[in-house]
């Protein structure tokens, strides 16, 4: 089996799984309980918080644990809207955001907020000039993703951060779910960022656990109310085993990160070089510095993406159409649509996504397996076009 769908989810690291099991069995008290078992769980929780903060370069009290990237995005956006609605109701985002961001701002629009959705260029990036023009006196939030989940484009976070230095009251949220472990931190983090979303299962942690970074003294309202956990901002008994396992996974992820990213880029490069000159293939994820090393999106034009996915799946090779969230719905890539890619090309798109556990031998096997499939589909498509 070859697994090239790491942007959808990653396999849990054995060490992280061991941590999860050990904490679940041995430290099972409620961190809010006053007795010794509760205190053991609380100490474990805070140790994990300190570790995550240290690894990401933040302060422990700026780290909040959530159920994953979707909740972190929802909380950053809706929590800002609730906290700042008296000061303004204008939100800016991009046309290529993950549904957790896009659907959050659209829900707020139904509740009376105004939303500006920035267009992107042919490479899937927003224009900082467009953002500058869109900012108003009543703008309360700018939410721009770090790394696009469908094509791997890196947004100009540094330039946006520099721009927003002149607008200190506007919250700046970055969905960084696809950004960790790719040696991109210097591109996707800026001191002006107020909120960042992360998801444990994207970097070999368990599912159902995530992180929201909230810069100190920035105000957001809670979405989850209850017993007052996470400093009264995110109630609900903390998932201590998953939090500890995620912290372990993050530490392992960031060990030798440059070498891991280089390895992913080499795998991407090998498949890219194979595909680049093939008639009927259109690639959306070049080997440039403004694209992540782990995502390769391309179309075998005229053949629906799900057809290619299922054909390769029958050969033991797993990848997806575009995002995992939309692939089962059979709809075209929202990112490619925003890039004004023709529908016929967009619905043919597939996404390979790599991690450090993939090998060059797997890249070779993909190429060997894909070649006859490509020849078959290209002949059918080319013959069909000639017939017309």
Number of domains: 2
The strand count comes to 12
Radius of gyration: 22 Å
Strand order of the largest sheet: 2-8-7-6-5-3-4
**What is the CATH superfamily classification of the largest domain?**
Type I PLP-dependent aspartate aminotransferase-like (Major domain)
Termini Cα gap: 39 Å
Please outline what is shown here:
The protein has 388 residues and is of the alpha/beta class.
Descriptive notes:
- Belongs to the class-V pyridoxal-phosphate-dependent aminotransferase family. NifS/IscS subfamily.
- Keywords: Iron, Iron-sulfur, Metal-binding, Pyridoxal phosphate.
- Its cofactor is pyridoxal 5'-phosphate.
- It comes from Amylolactobacillus amylotrophicus DSM 20534.
- The structure is a single chain.
- The protein has 388 residues and is α/β, with parallel strands linked by helices.
- The protein has two domains: 132 residues, Aspartate Aminotransferase, domain 1; 241 residues, Type I PLP-dependent aspartate aminotransferase-like (Major domain) (Aspartate Aminotransferase, domain 2, 3-Layer(aba) Sandwich).
- It contains 15 helices and twelve strands.
- The protein has a seven-stranded mixed β-sheet, sandwiched between helices. A three-stranded antiparallel β-sheet has the order 9-10-12. A two-stranded parallel ribbon has the order 1-11.
- β6, α7 and β7 form a beta-alpha-beta unit.
- α1 runs antiparallel to α9, α2 packs parallel to α9 and α3 runs parallel beside α4.
- It is globular, with a radius of gyration of 22 Å.
């Amino acid at each position: 089996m070859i697994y090239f769908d790491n942007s959808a989810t990653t396999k849990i690291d054995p060490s992280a799984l061991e941590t999860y099991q050990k904490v679940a069995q041995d430290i099972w008290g409620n961190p809010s309980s006053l007795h010794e078992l509760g205190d053991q769980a609380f100490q474990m929780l805070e140790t994990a918080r300190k570790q995550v903060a240290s690894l990401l370069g933040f302060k422990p009290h700026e780290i909040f644990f959530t159920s994953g990237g979707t909740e972190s995005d929802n909380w950053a956006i809706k929590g800002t809207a609730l906290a700042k609605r008296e000061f303004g109701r204008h939100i800016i985002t991009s046309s290529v955001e993950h549904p957790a961001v896009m659907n959050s701002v659209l829900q707020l629009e139904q509740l009376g907020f105004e939303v500006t959705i920035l267009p992107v260029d042919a490479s899937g990036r927003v224009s900082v000039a467009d953002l500058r023009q869109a900012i108003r006196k009543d703008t309360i939030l700018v939410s721009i993703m770090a790394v696009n989940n469908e094509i791997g484009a890196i947004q100009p976070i540094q330039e946006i951060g520099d721009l927003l230095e002149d607008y200190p009251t506007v919250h700046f949220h970055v969905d960084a779910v696809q950004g960790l472990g790719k040696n991109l931190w210097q591109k996707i983090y800026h001191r002006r960022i107020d909120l960042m979303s992360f998801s444990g299962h994207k970097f070999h942690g368990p599912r159902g656990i995530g992180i929201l970074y909230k810069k100190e003294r920035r105000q957001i309202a809670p979405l989850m109310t209850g017993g007052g956990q996470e400093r009264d901002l995110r109630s609900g008994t903390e998932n201590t085993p998953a939090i500890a396992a995620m912290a372990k996974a993050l530490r392992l992820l960031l060990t030798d990160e440059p070498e891991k990213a280089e390895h992913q880029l080499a795998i991407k490069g090998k498949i890219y070089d194979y595909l680049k000159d093939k008639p009927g293939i259109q690639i959306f994820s070049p080997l440039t510095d403004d694209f992540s090393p782990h995502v390769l999106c391309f179309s075998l034009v005229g053949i629906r993406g799900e057809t290619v996915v299922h054909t390769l799946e029958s050969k033991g090779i797993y990848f997806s159409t575009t995002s995992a969230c939309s692939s089962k719905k059979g709809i075209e890539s929202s990112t490619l649509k925003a890039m004004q890619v023709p529908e016929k090309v967009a619905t043919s798109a597939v996404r390979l996504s790599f991690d450090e556990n993939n090998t060059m031998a797997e890249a070779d096997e993909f190429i060997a397996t894909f070649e006859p499939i490509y020849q078959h589909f290209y002949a059918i498509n080319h013959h069909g076009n000639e017939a017309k």
